[in-house]
Every structure is written in C-alpha cells, then in structure tokens.
C-alpha cells in the first residue's frame, strides 16, 4: 500500500462530531499527496464555509496523520472550490444520514 | 516538502483556499448563557408568585414588569448577546472585534439588568439607575457588533437582517430609557406611543429579525441542506422592516387602518421567510432532524400563526387589551423563546465540546455532539413547555385562576428542569 493510501485509511478515524460520520465517507477529503520522505499534504474541504468545526476537524486530521509511523511533515490544505456537494458522499454516509 | 508543495500547487490551482479561523473564547458566550438560564427560572418564579395578575391580565404593574424584564432582558437578550458572540464569527467569517470589551460589557450588563428588574418590581421610581447601567452595557454590545460587522469583507442578506435587528435593539433601549425616565420624573405625554414602539421594536424588530438572519445560516447547517434556492430573502427583509415602520408610525398617528396595514406587511414578510425556510428544509440531507432543532423549526410555524392572528384581530378591529397582551405573550413564548430553547440545545453542546474535546479529535475517541445531550429528556421538556403555554393562555382567557396557577407552576418547574438539563451538559 502506498503511503498516501495509508494516510487516507487513517482519515477514516476522523469523525465529524456534529454528523457522527468520518470525513472520508462524507467526501471532505479531496486528495492526499506524499513524497519519498513521507511528508504529507491533505487537501480537504468542509460542508459549509465558516463551519464552526473548522479548527477541530483540520487539527484532528493533523493529529491523526501525525500518529502514523515514519511520517514526515503534515500539512492540511483547506479549500472551498470545488464546493462540497452531497454527491461527494459515499453510499454509507448517505445511508447514515 | 517544497517539491511536494509545488506538486500540490498544480493540483489545487483551481481551488480557493481561505483561512477562516474566527472562533470566540467560549467563556464569554457561556457566561451570558448561564446568567440567562438563571434569569429564565427566576422570571417564571416571579410570574408564578403573581399568577393572580396574569389571570386579570394586569401586565402593567411592577411585579409584571419585573417578571417580563427578567424574561426578556435577563433571559432572551442575554442569550441573544451570548449567541451573537458565538454566531457572528461563524456567519460573517470575521472574529469578534474586542473580546476583553465583551467581558466588561457582560459585567456591566449583568449588574444593570439585575438592578433594573429588581427596582422595577420593588421601587419603580429608582429603575432609572439600573436602566442607565443596562443602556451602557447594551451600548457597548452594539458598538462591539458594529465594529465586528464593519470588518466583514462582503455583506450578505444575513448582515442586513442583523444590522436591522441591532438597530431596532438600540431604539428599543432608547425608548425603554425614556419610559423609565417618565416613570421617575414624568412630563412626557406620549407615554403609550413610546411603550408600544418599545414593545414592537424589541420583540418584532430585535428578536424576530435576529432569528430570521441567523436562521439563514443555522437551518441549512443543522439540516445539512444543499442545492436550495432562496427566492424570498430580500423581499422578506424589506417587507418585514416596512411593516415594522408602518406599525410604529400607526402608534403615533393613532390610525387603526395603518395598524392593520402594518400587521399585513409583517405577516407577508414572515410568510416569505417561511417559504425560504421550507425551500431549505426540502433540500435537507439529514432526513431525521435532531429533536431540539426540530422544536426551533416548529417555533417558526408558531410565529406564522401568531402573525396571522394579529392580522385577523386588527382586521376585525378587536382592541381588547387583555387579548393583545396575551397575543404578545404567545409571540414572545411560542416564537422567540421556543426558538431560543431549541437552538440552545445545539449551541451549548458545541461550546462545551469545543472546549473539552476539540484538541482530542484524531488522537483518541471523542463523543459526538449528540452524546452531550439527553435527547429523550429534551422531547419531554419541550412537550411540557407547549402544554404549559397552551394551558396558561387558555386559563387566562377564560379567567380561571386555578388553571393559570397550575400551568404557570408547570412552566416554572419545566424551566428549572430545562436550565438543569443545559447546565448538565457542562459536566459531560
């Protein structure tokens, strides 16, 4: 498994506390990039700009990825375009809602 | 890492990145909310001790003033101010201008409101002193909000609702001060016109416009709605504000037809707001709404019913002061207070969760926001609130003292249990 995939797997542990669904199934993670030194940049969004969970979720992502073995620097890149839409959610997330 | 960043840059070159860090220290909104909960229970207790005045619809006696001001200033205004310290940064994406000023404003307002309400009940001629402190505290709040909103990069309809609400609040306080002055020193003949303007600006201007504005942010957020179209927002704003102006003018020129036109515009403005909320909720992804939030949504329906009742009464020229007093009571309780009671069950868990668990997310298992509240208990409490209000209004209109006493007692006990259930969140 590539390091990027490992990072993505770990993000299933980060749960939106309001919805009770992890951020990957919610479709909030747009991409994970990693280099040969295991430096990681996670590009993600939130369901709405100004979401009060802004800091909690992005810090949660940093904390979780930082727990991985041999990880280098971790950076979270929060973007608002493309805007999040329900079509980005997994079937599981839709079912849970 | 630099190479990775360059690689990423090409990936996100079409994505807009923004820092939206704008949170408030939770101690400030929580302080307002805790004081407000105490005032809520005290207000109901004061009204219970004076239930005989409620039966005879004597709303213009010192004890009634004390109960009403504990409820509206001590509870509703303090909650609204505390919630604004939390919600303005969320809705406007701009931090509070000066949080230290917020703390100072809290202390001054608490001393002001407590002394004002107590003197209104026991020594109305001295109410002016508490009134001055209250005005000073609220003026600091209005200044704080004006400075915060002025930093907003791009105005939207929520900004206009909030600006109109805060302006109404300033006028309400000014009118309240003139009334307190007149009670103390006399000399102002248009006391009734000022009183009616004070009530209208306070309940319909300040609270309603504020709930309208924040509903446009909170309802989509709590129902996870996406892809809706808002067709009526600007019409709702302009019609409601126009209705307010007409209604207030009618109190000064004493023209019944103008009063009816004012209520007609308020009803139309409220209906436009309901249409927008309906459009949002129809596109919600969260099919099963959280119960406390559903209660706030039900309060919107109550508001529409009260506005239509006011229009009907006005159309048929019914000017019975006890009927209108009870209609104002229902306006305050079933629309404003019920909205607040529902939203508090969302705001307080958020504040406490952020304080206690925000740093633990991603490190260890943390509770969901919903785990912070007892939702089943909230359903029981909200049902008891509805039963109390219906029983109280019915008993008062039929002038049956025992019914009023029992339902006011139920309302007091429910208010205490509600305050307890909110404070319990802080121990989770």
Question: Could you provide a short overview of the structure?
Answer:
The complex is a heterodimer of chains A (97) and B (428). Chain A is an alpha+beta fold.
Topology:
The complex is a heterodimer of chains A (97) and B (428).
Chain A lengths: L2 H8 L4 E2 L4 E2 L6 E6 L5 E5 L9 H13 L7 E5 L12 H6 L1
Parallel strand pairs in A: 4-5
Antiparallel strand pairs in A: 1-2, 3-4
Chain B lengths: L1 H10 L15 H23 L1 H5 L6 H31 L6 H24 L4 H24 L6 H29 L5 H33 L9 H21 L2 H27 L8 H25 L5 H37 L17 H23 L3 H25 L3
Helix pairs in contact in B: 2-4, 2-5, 2-14, 4-5, 4-8, 4-12, 5-6, 6-7, 7-8, 7-9, 8-9, 8-10, 8-12, 9-10, 10-11, 11-12, 12-13, 13-14
Description:
The complex is a heterodimer of chains A (97) and B (428). Chain A has helices spanning 3-10, 54-66, 91-96; strands at 15-16, 21-22, 29-34, 40-44, 74-78. With 97 residues, chain A is an alpha+beta fold. In chain A, strand 4 (40-44), helix 2 and strand 5 (74-78) form a beta-alpha-beta unit. Chain A is globular, with a radius of gyration of 13 Å. The model of chain A has no long low-confidence stretch (mean pLDDT 89). With 428 residues, chain B is an all-alpha fold. The longest helix of chain B is centred in the C-terminal third of the chain and has 37 residues, at 321-357. In chain B, 79% of the residues lie in helices and 0% in strands. Chains A and B meet through strand 3, helix 2 and strand 5 of A and helix 1, helix 4, helix 8 and helix 12 of B.
